[in-house]
Amino acid sequence: MHNTTLEYAQQKDQQDPLASYRSKFHIPKDANGNDWLYFTGNSLGLQPKSTKDYINQELEDWANFGVEGHFEAKNPWMPYHEFLTESMAKIVGAKPIEVVTMNTLTTNLHLLMVSFYQPTKTKYKIVIESDAFPSDRYAVQTQLEFHGFDVSQGLIEWKPRAGETLLNMEDLESILEEQGDEIALLLIGGVNYYTGQYLDIKRIAQLGHAKHCMVGIDLAHGAGNIKPELHNSGVDFAAWCTYKYLNSGPGSLAGLFVHEKHAHNKDLKRFAGWWSHNKSTRFNMRQPLDVTPGAEGWQLSNPPILSMAAIKASLDMFNEVGMDALCKKSKELTGYFEFLLNQLHNDKIKIITPSNPDERGCQLSIQVKDADKRLHERLTDAHIITDWREPDVIRCAPVPMYNSFEDVYRMVEKFKAILS
To answer: What is the pTM of this model?
Structure first.
């Protein structure tokens, strides 16, 4: 059982087998050189100290080899994306053939919908969660419009029940029971950006497939945070960014998953490019398109090496630690955070993230009664970096790779002072 003393938090840090990884990250500091309390890994992960070396290696090879770096660099650029595949596949629970690193998240979602959203006049609707991340909503809306459908008819929202914040799987079942014959695609956020609710991805796939719908998952807030086990879930496709929990830097490349059952289906419609083509004949420039099997068949262009170098730096660290160890610490750290917040006994605050550790990652969304953005600004002035979401929610992510139990303790103490 937790307790509320600083000594307890420090003891937990001493017992933490991952505690040393904190020193491997650059942590923002105040003017006096003290670490800020950084709880925004759900928006932008901190920079691994090794990132600079990984990028510098490619800059040196570019300087020394020029174009020959595609073959002569320490990490040849030609197959560079392949250096990331196995590690990325482990993080999301996929087979290597099912994963590729490329583009950005919403670009990947659009490319995937070209293949997996094939509407007919009668089966054309798309289901999203009602409070989906805006980019997902805009992507789905414009896909419907592109295909000539009325968004007000074609977009179905899976909503929380009246007076509730979280989604209920029974309500998705009802939507599919009532409209499944008209639904072509489910595109659901695996971890909701606002509430932090981690949804049962496998159950969503089962429900969708029972009505012959395609099922896609946005893992922007899931990759590196939870274990989605994408292959075993049976979802058709997924996409995620790498700059949040995967610590790859602002605007860095995204990940893409296509289930193995689609790996060799060359009849799937797609938008293709040079890197979609069979590797063995890619440089024989005059060949008709011969699609590469698996997720790599959705690539368009040769990989941007400097971004991939930053991703490689982070993935190598994830490989060392493993998702099992990260998720174990995450549950302990987030559980401790939840405990301390509950010990405040403050009727102004409400944690809207599920209390069940299996239904959340490391994010807790704290709803603060009668608050506005000035609360977030006061936290920032106190050197606590959190994330404000209108109208009254502070999102906090105690990331197990670099946050400590003492971070959590000090954050709650300062939060308590500000609330009072």
So the answer is: 0.96
